[in-house]
Amino acid sequence: MTGLTNREVVVKVISWNLLRLTGAAVEDVARLLEREKPDVLLMQEVTEHIDLLPTLVHGHFHRQPWPGRIHGLAVWTRHHHVAPYALPLPASRLPGRLPRRRAQIVQVGDITFANVHLSHGQLLNRRQLSRIAASLHGKPSAIVGDYNAVGPILIPGYVDVGPIEPTHYGSNIVPFRLDRCLVHRLRCGSTGTLAFGPSDHRPIMVELHTADAGAKRDPLRAARHRIARLRAALR
Asked: The dihedral of CA 133, 137, 138, 141: what is its sign?
């Protein structure tokens, strides 16, 4: 984390869906960390094989498996963080719609992160996002990960600041922007996508700026930014 002033800090965040056993291996994740040097790496579809990451790259690592599945969520940070906890999310009542999804909530400095891999149902994943946002109680926060969502997402108080280019291709043909970042009481500097690597998802990268409550804000500029982001998402 890089301090800009006495009141502002920049946090570089990367999110990557690893594609379970057939995608990114622990060595691929370690190379990404060494090359990009993020402060926070949020991972989805993480298996026990990634538990070796702290032996390859110094940092703090926590994996949260999903019950009954070989994969789950994980977070790596360069700096110390509060131990994550699991937030249960709304689930489908249809038979066989398992596992029940959970978000991984972790506090890093002044920012609360929700690492997510949401359901494919478009109404259900919006309900899951609303549950996450409500649980964060208005804190400076970022909901980051694989949303499995199509089209714009409107959560009161949150702004979509992730890259607008596709991060996944259905059947290797149809482009989707599945990997996203919504923030509350944070500003975003640079943003972009990285190379797929062995996975079927591009990692996304965002630089988040956090400032104290006394920092000056420009509401008109913020509104223009949100309108521009919404127009881009609707294209």
From this structure: negative
